[in-house]
Amino acid sequence: MVSDLVHDPVRRQRYRFEPEGDVLRVDIWIDPGGEVPEHLHPAQEERFEVRSGHVRFTVNGVRQDAGPGERLAAPPGTKHRFENLGADEARLRVEVEPALDIRDFLEDAAKLAREGKYTRRGLPRGPRAALEAAVFAHEYRRTTVLTSPLMVAQRPLLTALAALGRRRGYKSPSARSR
Fold first, then answer.
1. Distance of CA 93 to CAs 22, 30, 60, Å?
2. Are residues 153 and 67 both part of a single domain?
3. Quick one: 11 and 89 in the same domain?
4. Which of 100, 126, 155 is the last residue of a domain?
5. Residue 20 neighbours by CB distance under 10 Å
6. Contact 41, 143 (CB under 8 A)
7. Which tens digit of pLDDT belongs to each residue from 25-45?
8. Where are the alpha helices (H) located in 17-123, listed in sequence order?
């Protein structure tokens, strides 16, 4: 079943999800200047196909510009990012396998963006937002890991901040609606 569009105003993207077994297909519309910062998925492969537009991917530090019909993949544990370099909207079809909770991650990240919790550079907007971001990042640490700040410093810092955030009652957006 295909989902409704989910809008992320900070990343300048819209998502539509289509689960199929253990694979999640995600159509992504990326506005000019829209991007996803460098991250990795510890246990998931991401396969990208550019449907329209001009997208720059960086996979393990190697840049590749791609246009319609071009494909590439980021195996589990591979650092990657992408951005729309064109003046027009770009469209990607992405397959994530296994899906795990990547859909919840993307929906929660978009909700935090719509709530104005973080800046375009991914920085929390104040102490409360920092605690909420830590709870969010800690909850999804098995799905998606941002590579900045340094990953070696993230685990202890996020664990401590997430514990403090949970003690203060903060939950990720999907947990709030449960």
1. 16, 11, 20
2. no
3. yes
4. 100
5. 11
6. yes
7. 999 999 999 999 999 999 999
8. 102-114
